[in-house]
Amino acid sequence: MVRFTGSLKVGKLGLASLLALAIGPRGLSAQPQTARGVVFHDADGNGQREAGEEGLAGIKVSNGREIVRTDAQGRYEIAVADDTTIFVLKPRNWSPPLNETFLPRFFYTHKPAGSPPSRYPGVGPTGPLPASVDFPLRPSAEPDRFEAIFFGDTQPRDLKEIGYIAHDVVAELIGATPAAFGVTLGDIVFDDLEMFEPLNRAIALMGLPWYNVIGNHDLNYDAPEDRLADETFERIYGPPYYSFDHGPVHFLVLDNVRWYGRTETRDGHYRPGLGEDQLEFIRNDLALIPGDQLLVLMMHIPLTARWEGTDRDDLFGLIERRPLCFSVSAHTHWQAHQFLTAEQGWRGPAPHHHLINVTVCGSWWSGEPDETGIPHATMQGGAPNGYSIITFDGGSYSIRYKAARRPADYQMHVWAPEVVPSRDSGLAEVLVNVFAGSERSKVEMRVGEAGPWVELHRTIRPDPFFVRMKQREEAEGPSTGYRRLPAIQDSQHLWQGFLPENLAPGAHVIHVRTTDMFGQTYSASRAIQVR
Known about the structure:
alpha+beta; 6-stranded mixed β-sheet; Purple Acid Phosphatase, chain A, domain 2; 3 domains; Immunoglobulin-like; elongated
């Protein structure tokens, strides 16, 4: 695929920006320099600027703090230190080159001495700053309406689990999705950073441009401090935080995992946070987009977690007055739609919608393998593993849950007794797990074809199917031959009702329908016997 080099110059940033970069976007002390180059129309797609390939005006370029725009000839200049990634903020209708695994190459890392030695290699020595760092872009039609695929926590431990991902999720998307691009929302791998590249090759089979968010299991846990923990991620994927436009939507990728390395007195650990450099980038980024543009924040750890210091409040302060803003994370291994209010520190005029996305690995590839050898990996809330398909249309969006290797309309399961005494039918409980349900969902049930529709009530409790699977595992004893399911916890998307009283003996069908917050309707049914 195409690569890029560099040339030329734009206006000056001034002393303040140079001083900010003198301590580096990652906190490194270094002599500030000025990087110069051109963002250009790569007409022949070879990644090299050649005669007749014009510079592109008004393109945003960042060093991880500051953002500048190219001039009329496509030229820019920006301050760098000796550990700086320079990157283009992809504009609408233009695309950067992709590498052989469909990862966007929109960045240049300036690290003259390279990353410190580690068992997981980081960036090699880049040597002196090139005279010009150029970025190629090619035209790409981006309509107002488009789809994107969102993976949470693919998280393979080894090549075997990469095989699970390929067969369970990737295979059904090959040649079968109109999505414009895909995103993995962190925990790309499970601590073994050597799995990044084989996993990239598996995901590349879909043929989609693929963006990546850094997660806690994507860090190098040998690193003594946060600024060195993502060196391997940077080598493969580029900057850990950045933004881009696709169609009318602005996507902002956050690195909200802060690493506190191991010392003589403490074990290494992480906490959710952003840091001042990233917050400054976010301030500058948002200042350059319209207030009514749909903004989508993508991160690994949910906004409802316990964040470090005031970082979450500072982030809220930057987005809470924007009328069109949505955020998505992963990390928990259970799906939930959350609506943030003052209880979570949100001060916006309306609740903020935050999606904790379904995970590809479900419950860490646990549970009994099926006939193909793939664990069922049911998540703790009782929903199957899978991914989300998000449709964007101008300033609106809608979300569809997709269970791995299941039909698109498999959106819930219905729990009810197999056999019910007629005299006690009114006491028989029905529980419906609507996998992508939320407090804004409506769930209704009726028995038979002529019975009335009765609205069910949301209840926060364990999913009975998950409880039964967990009990079966425990009854089998310690040696099941597969990884055990995680602990039972309450489901956030469960609805409760009761059968009608005095049902006549015989076979009956329970019909359930649900309408979600986007107006999408799904149905399911379950047969029972009344005696």
